[in-house]
Protein 1
Amino acid sequence: MALRALDNTMPAAVEERPKKVAKVAAPAAAVKSASPGSGKKQKKKNDENSAPRATAAAGEQAVEYIPSEELEAAAHPKAKAAGLVAELDSKDWIRACEALNDARRLAIHHSALLNPILEKVMLAIVKTMKNPRSAVLKTSIMACTDIFNNFGNLLSSVSDDAFDKLLLQLLLKASQDKRFVCEEAEKAMRAMAASMPPLPLLKKLKAYVHHANLRVRAKAAVAISHCATRMNIEAMKEFGMSVLLQVAAELLNDRLPEAREAARSVVASVHGAFAKEAAAKGKEEEEDAPDVAASWESLCSLSLPPISAQAVAKIAASSQ
């Protein structure tokens, strides 16, 4: 038997088996497109690029925001007033926008026709202010501005409930993150504070000083400051000067600078009216100044805790 040579040579290489290639799954979209006749119908995704949304966006861009001074009188005002509430309640948002502009026309040019149905119109506008469509929302706030400007004492024409609902919506819209909504709502609130009697409006706004939403508190504080600038000493006394100082002192500790600045404005208005009343008594200005300062400090100390009284007195001294 022949012996194999004992060396370090390896046996002849065995032919390697071919390696398996990993199978890669085809994308689901490719599989579905490759077999158009197989399987169920695929549902279209309802994203922002779909046709219905694009059409709605185009329609919303077509809505024109007409400035108040460019709104012309209604062609048939009596007919518009008769069907206004129903049109405002329309599910067609374009018709709702047209109805809101009709309400603006009636408020500006035909206020006598709008006055008998004003409360129903206000409640319908409050409903449109909750609409998610930007066009309806902005037009509804513009309608509020025109109604404020043309119905000075709105509280004499509508119930407390209707006005409270409107005021809440304006404060909420003025507190939103959408800039165009905030600006329009702030404009409406300025019109409200400038046109309505300050005393009844101040009584309504006072409730929002304790609102849980700090932005709502700040917007209410700004409106309160606007009311205070229009109030004379008699109106302040009727509301309660101590109460007004307490409201201002509470807002001075608020988290938002807007509320704190409004509170300082309220203190300055109260102090200005207080000093004006003292000066109207006919005394000399040099003799009056120490007495006014002492009387003011006495009012603050009687109305507020010591720390708050010092803060309010300091603001009044710096505003002189």
Protein 2
Amino acid sequence: MLPVEGICMEMCPKEEIMMVLTVKNVPFNIVYDFIDDRLNSIRQDATIQAVSNQDWMTILPPIIRFHAYAAHKCYEYDVNTFDPFLNMKHFHDSIFKIVKILSEDLGESTNELCSEMVSLLIVTNLGDYNVLQQALPFISKKNALIKVAILLSLSIMNGNFGQLFETYHTFPAMHQCVICVQLPMLRKNILKSMCMGFNCKNNYFPISILSKMLLHNEPRETIKECQHYGLTVVGDKVELSKSSFNNEADELHLKKEIKFKVNISTILNT
């Protein structure tokens, strides 16, 4: 049990979880462990009771949003403190189930929840052909958010990384959370692609523009990333050189900050 003062364990699970989520006097990984345990219990109980699809549509969205949020919130935690792979397994188990339910009744697939869930699945797996195939039945409903997510994923699959910068800020906060987790891989590919496309001796590119393209919080992070991959930075510019780019370097994990306009418990419980 989470030793959080003022939490009544007799209250309903949903209220309890939302109250614990806002606790500030303990590390978030402790909060995460408590909530994750409660959510797993709820899913197991629902499975044992063989609840209806309609009930699952109520149960699963807050669970999915929580794991999406946690992926970003705990991004810099040590793997012994927070297991990102297990977190995403719980995320995928839940979201694949809800998308399957939605696919069985495409007549309901134009609603807001469907739009959120299907597009969230896509942007969590950018460039994944199998996920795109599962999402295609929903695009016929002319859902704008799903269409943008599919176009971004297709662009990533085809090496067109410019689409990331153009569309990232159009996505809701939960979508940005799961996109941010993929940024180390995406940034490396963007830099590598630019070094090949702009490769020319003494060809310098402005750090300010590159910083926006890589979705960094500030230019000094861009400089750090460029230097990490062996590129030469001179003042406020970087030399994009194919021969200098160190493809063997590990991905650099720099966390992208996300500003939530409302309380996170409100977002998860939408």
